[in-house]
Amino acid sequence: MREHGEAAQVTEMTELSFTAVATASEIAPETAKEVKVNGRSILICHSDGRFFAVENRCSHAEEPLACGRLKRGWLSCPAHGARFDLETGEPLNPPATEPIATFVIRINGDVIEVAA
Ligand code: FES
Predict the structure, then answer these.
(1) Which of 5, 6, 63, 74 is deepest in the core (most CB within 10 A)?
(2) Which of 108, 88, 105, 109 is nearest to 33 (CA)?
(3) For residue 95, which atom of ligand 1 is closest to its CA?
(4) Residue 40 belongs to domain with CATH number
(5) Ligand 1 in contact with 65 (CB < 6 A)?
(6) Is ligand 1 within 6 A of the CB of residue 66?
(7) What is the pLDDT of residue 15?
């Protein structure tokens, strides 16, 4: 008589690779810091008491979003005024109609790490 072994449990996990990019204490509330990760320009934004990472490129006309205004979890494009939700990247008003890229972020002590 054959015995049946327990089926191996296969867990699929996507390993994210994090890169340290800044310290939390260096980014004042409602400001952002531009960093480069794997050749991409990313904004680490401190808004509404939280940190977010978004691509530093507007989905409307691909202008940089650095220097845009931050408030209550959104970032405005300095070129034509579209605002983006920092958590989802979704546009909140025209002229942008497409989201911007967002990235997973984690904070290790005071160190901000981003997966991009
Ligand atoms: S380039 Fe950002 S709103 Fe036009």
Answers:
(1) 74
(2) 105
(3) 3
(4) 2.102.10.10
(5) no
(6) no
(7) 85
How far does residue 55's CA lie from ligand 1's centre (Å)?
13
| Number of alpha carbons in the 13 Å side-chain half-sphere of residue 46 | 15
Whether residue 11 is contained in a domain is answered as no
Cβ atoms of 17 and 39 closer than 8 Å: no
Q: What is the pLDDT of residues 67-103, one digit of tens each?
A: 999 999 999 999 999 999 999 999 999 999 999 999 9
pLDDT band at 12 (very low <50, low <70, confident <90, very high): low
Measured from the Cα of 80, ligand 1's closest atom is 3
Q: How many domains does the chain have?
A: 1
Check if the beta carbon of residue 114 is closer than 8 Å to that of residue 108: no
Q: Please give the model's pTM, rounded to 2 decimal places.
A: 0.87
Give the whole-angstrom CA distance, residue 20 versus residue 59: 26
Nearest atom in ligand 1 to the alpha carbon of residue 65 is: 2
- pLDDT reported for residue 116: 87
Q: Distance from the CA of 44 to the center of ligand 1, in angstroms?
A: 19
CB 61 less than 6 A from any atom of ligand 1: yes
Asked whether residue 30 is domain-assigned, the answer is yes
Does residue 12 lie within any of the structural domains? Answer: no
Q: Which domain holds residue 26?
A: 18-115
